[in-house]
Amino acid sequence: MKKWSADRDKLIYTHIVLIGIPTIFCYCLRLTGSNLLEWHIAIATVFLLSSLIIVVESTNALFLRFAIRDKQMIQGRADRYLQSFKSALGVSGAKRPTPKCPLPKCSFIVVAYLPNEQEIILDTLLHILTKVQQPPQGLELILAYNTPIELPIEDELRRLAEFYPALRLLRVENSRSKAENLNAAIEVVTGDITCILDADHQPCPDCFVRAWRWLEKDYDVVQGRNTIRNHSQNMLTEMIAIEFESLYGVSHAAKSFLSDTSIFGGSNGYWRTSVLKQIRFNPRMLTEDIDASMRTLLSGYRILHDRSIIATELAPTDLRAFWYQRKRWAQGWLEVSLRYQLRVLGSNKLNLWQKAYWTYILLTTASFTIISLQIFPIGLSSFLYQGWVPAYTNEYLLFGTAVTLVSGVYQTLVTMKIAFLRYPIHYFIQYGLLVFFYTLLKNIISVVALYDYLHGNNEWVVTPRQGRRTLFFPQRSAALTSGSSPLSSTKP
User: I want to staple 241 with a disulfide (CB 3.0 to 4.6 A). Which of 124, 231, 290, 439 is the partner?
Assistant: First the structure.
């Protein structure tokens, strides 16, 4: 409660600084006769550029299925000419490659902070052990967890590991972060492919088969598509569900289509284990996944996004949990942007287009919220000066406003096209109507994240996990001694 009050104070302070002071400055300029049109045009240009990128990404995500550009996969001269023509129109996409070698041994690393995630961890482990297809060379499941105290759930986990030999329990002593848990598991993982999962993520049964198609094709990391499992809980989870479809089904997929690069999103990512052991994770970074993504790309490794590899996860169910999750994300992205921007420009591993695209992503992440907020001082100063906000007739401003408004609607429609089978249509209508206010909330959170970053406050606040507590092993019973499964009468 004390921390929540502190964030409220930060919110008031930051908006006084970023909106109140510029409003006074703009008002003084108006007193000198300036109409601030040039300033308004500059801010509108930032909105316009962002909106055009949204339109381009959405269009690509609508028509393309896979990111790879491999002429060897296209047989026949006529087909190659047709593919080149479609590429020029931005509506092409090669077929998913067919693997030539059998799937090797695979490993899952599931990371958990058990006092927070003890209600859901058994469901996740049992889903993996009973639902995911077993590779011919074997499956390994490592639960890397930390806990400050002994918990009853640990007894249940040990009994589960006795029943399923594929499960390995790794309690990481003195760990204080997800990155430390991951690094400990990376030391002992034995599969050729390693999938990293958060404690609430449940992957699709053929996830490794789908990822192997790309990893065999000389990609090093394949990021799957995360969707929301508890979307029907309240309006917030409904909004997050459509936001995630927009991110993982449209934006992240399009980044892969457009630049043949992507990011590892922290979970449902499939790594060549040899690469993972080189990259590892930095415990000092708030978003260790984005930091690892940048180091992977700058090292010359390739990341691809395949939105057909689906894993479900749990969204925050209340505003407080949402606030701290998104503040950590915003602050972490800011850290990464400031650390890697110059390295991206000087990289000899990225081509010119990839450098330009990642420069846009990093600069936008670091500055868009602050720049976008300056539209308020312009309007407020006009109101203070003359009692109303004038309606500009400048054609460029009108065009920029129209594109900005249309881009959000267009992206929502594309998201609905891609994900309409997963959610009721009213989710998309609701998202389209409320996305402005939802984005405003995220921008407010980003401003507080900037304050924390400038003041060196990088405390990790754990996102609360809510789940139905299920005791699969209430006691050591005949189920184990007789060889029967705790879930059914036959062992998988």
Answer: 231
pLDDT higher than 90, residue 453:
no
| pLDDT confidence band for 467 (50 / 70 / 90) | low
Across the range 428-432, mean pLDDT stands at 92
Rounded Cα distance, 394 and 48, in Å? 14
- Collapse the DSSP code of 280 into the 3-class scheme (helix H, G, I; strand E, B; otherwise coil) and give the result: coil
Q: What share of the chain is helix, strand, coil (3-state, %, to 5)?
A: 60, 10, 30
For the cut 60, the answer to whether the pLDDT of residue 474 exceeds it is no
Residues sharing a CB contact under 8 Å with residue 94, sequence separation 6 or more, in sequence order: 66, 68, 69, 70, 73, 74, 83
**CA-based nearest residue to 279, from 337, 331, 221:** 221
Spell 443-479 as b/e; 16+ CB within 10 A means b.
ebbbbbbbbbbeeeeeeeeebbbebeeeebbeeeeeb
Return the closest-CA partner of residue 422 out of 204, 108, 267, 223. 204
Q: Residue 315 has which token pair? A: 């969204």
In degrees, rounded to 5, the angle at the alpha carbon of residue 480 between the alpha carbons of residues 474 and 484 is 110
How distant is the alpha carbon of residue 489 from its chain centre? 39
